[in-house]
Automatic annotation (TrEMBL):
Pfam families: STAS (PF01740). InterPro entries: Bact_StressResp_Reg (IPR051932), STAS_dom (IPR002645), STAS_dom_sf (IPR036513). It comes from the Bacteria. PANTHER family: RSBT ANTAGONIST PROTEIN RSBS, RSBT ANTAGONIST PROTEIN RSBS-RELATED. This is RsbT co-antagonist protein RsbR. Residues 150-251 form the STAS domain.
């Protein structure tokens, strides 16, 4: 295999019928390096087409094929492969890119794709942080506070939503069991709207507490919220007090 003496502005090869490169131009060497077989630079999807049509019986033809990317990563490159058989043994092959800017565009697209992947990963991280912050905020909307050795306070804040109730359910039930609490005061003084689905979850939490042997006292319920308790049929064992002050005086003073 030798480099041809003529200078071509495009990759040029002389091959035999087995696609072994006999000679090549300086541009071919710059573009593809030292390659012994033409098929080595061809993308796998284009190999059947070349094997079928680049034969001595077809003296002259032009094929659109895909080449492997010039670098280790990237998309296949589209080009026109011009073939002219000199005889039954050797053929001249000229490679012309479909677009002179194709390589530049391909590299630019790869760079944009890489930047997009980085951006998506960063957005995913921010999304996870936001979800974690929301979960933390939901847990803080119903903290578990020990008042005495047998009585705890759960002040509820803001809207009663299903997300908030699911966020506090496990910790509330676990804390009640671990601290051997006999009584929990649910303070509704700072509660706004009561979402129906969230209120159902709250009812289930209170029912679970009763099964665990914990008494539930609802404090500071507003008149408009009483309807929610009636419609959803909260456990009849619930005790009600008008204010947290009354509850503390009754259960937390000796």
């Amino acid at each position: 295999m030798k480099r041809v003496n003529r200078t071509f502005p495009l990759p040029y090869f002389t091959i035999n019928k087995n696609f072994i490169i006999q000679a090549y131009s300086e541009e071919a060497e710059k573009t593809f390096g030292s390659t012994e077989n033409l098929l080595d630079i061809v993308d796998e999807e284009s190999l059947p087409k070349i094997r079928k049509w680049v034969v001595p019986d077809v003296r002259k033809l032009t094929l659109e094929i895909h080449l492997k990317p010039f670098e280790s990563e990237g998309n296949p490159l589209t080009c026109d492969l011009h073939v002219n058989w000199q005889n039954d043994l050797y053929a001249e092959v000229l490679i012309i890119m479909k677009d002179a800017q194709l390589l530049k565009v391909t590299k630019t697209m790869d760079q944009l794709r890489s930047r997009l992947d980085d951006t998506n990963f960063a957005l995913l991280e921010e999304k996870e942080k936001l979800e974690e912050a929301i979960q933390h905020g939901n847990r803080l909307s119903a903290p578990f506070i020990n008042l005495t050795c047998d009585t705890a306070l759960v002040p509820l804040f803001g809207q009663i939503t299903v997300e908030k109730m699911y966020a506090v359910e496990e910790e509330l039930l676990q804390s009640s069991q671990d601290d051997e609490i006999d009584r929990i005061l649910f303070d509704f003084t700072a509660v706004g709207e009561m979402d129906p689905e969230g209120t159902r979850v709250l009812k289930d939490i209170m029912s679970s507490l009763f099964y665990m042997g914990v008494s539930v006292v609802v404090v500071g319920l507003q008149p408009k919220q009483v309807k929610n308790f009636h419609v959803l049929q909260f456990p009849s064992q619930i005790s009600f007090l008008n204010s947290l002050q009354q509850a503390i005086q009754k259960y937390c003073t000796t």
